[in-house]
Amino acid sequence: MKTPTIPTLLGPDGMTSLREYAGYHGGGSGFGGQLRAWNPPGESVDAALLPNFTRGNARADDLVRNNGYAANAIQLHQDHIVGSFFRLSHRPSWRYLGIGEEDARAFSREVEAAWKEFAEDDCCCIDVERKRTFTMMIREGVAMHAFNGELFVQATWDTSSSRLFRTQFRMVSPKRISNPNNTGDSRNCRAGVQINDSGAALGYYVSEDGYPGWMPQKWTWIPRELPGGRASFIHVFEPVEDGQTRGANVFYSVMEQMKMLDTLQNTQLQSAIVKAMYAATIESELDTQSAMDFILGANSKEQRERLTGWIGEIAAYYAAAPVRLGGAKVPHLMPGDSLNLQTAQDTDNGYSVFEQSLLRYIAAGLGVSYEQLSRNYAQMSYSTARASANESWAYFMGRRKFVASRQASQMFLCWLEEAIVRRVVTLPSKARFSFQEARSAWGNCDWIGSGRMAIDGLKEVQEAVMLIEAGLSTYEKECAKRGDDYQEIFAQQVRETMERRAAGLKPPAWAAAAFESGLRQSTEEEKSDSRAA
Known about the structure:
three-stranded antiparallel sheet; 13 strands; alpha+beta; single chain; four-stranded antiparallel sheet
């Protein structure tokens, strides 16, 4: 007996089964089979990233070197994440360490003063190459992380130095991190990173700079940490899932569009040049056969003589007809010739709108606003500008916390260990833990970079004042938003007040008004208290 065939119920498109149609469409063939040919493999991050890792970073490097928008994106990262001075705000965990708050504050002031002298020395003693200050190294690290997806810093020890501190650092290009002898990846060595079975990095293979290329390439293995816990090689990147060994640059999602936009701009520029090349043309009644003889047969002696003679006759004719009108020459053309003036054509032809659409897509992929990427702030109100800036600010603050601050804190810990050993700074005597026992607690700190962009300075200052007066914020937070340290501002205000008083200068009008307002309020409160009594 033949088994009856059970009919398959179909979805509204008449092709997809109803069971598949009722589930997630992204895993099916889509409406009308639109997704049937889209079958990407399910791979880990390393499997997707590392096979074309070198080529992808090389393309990002090329974009940053030769594309104005890509270069601007990197500059935005440096200016908004780091700024001109990356300031230390040391905050040891005094409760955990068992010391008093005042002792911790005194220790922090001592550490911050010594660190600033070491880190921002104009002689660049912090850098092995003697080219960078600490802030410059952080700016370079942020840029490196943007177009390479990661940053590397090697902590070194200057044995021949006569200076107080011998801790130094070397910025290492990600291009130099690779497997020795350019061998393939293995389970415990991937793209130059040696890892254990848990995926934690043990060390890095760093190749020597082989420029100009005739020297043999050599690799040096550098451990991640020294036996005492001191960082030897700093590697910072943001993994997107477990098992990731190297970082992915921010241009991967928009690299194709940026390259195509670059080509489109060049083509548009060439088109505009061609359209503007000829102001006028002269049409002649030269018959087709004669014209083709001139064009195709110019290699023969007879044709060259005919062509030369014809051009000579035209030149002689126009030279003998110098008709002018108000100083401008009016040519009298040969019989049969006509003068056609070429009007300038519209070179845009919808290009600007299309370019804006591409730039918005690219800006979304890079984490910045369209206005910042294109430097086009036209047709923006205060509200839209503030909303756009706030979106970018949130992105930059995340990168400051997880990229710039991580690099800075690890470098700071290396220096702080030496400063304590050399007794440049002294730990509070009542601490429960030594530096070796509680590195993170002693080195806990915040980093203050560039301030938030002020769109309307008056409104933003009023906002800060209202937040402080309402108890929703502090001077420390509001000053940090502006890229300042509130302790430095308070100390400077005290000095300026004393100097003005010593010089016989009156306080500023706002200070006098605030003092009088506070005095009146205090007097009224005293009167109210006396009445109540």
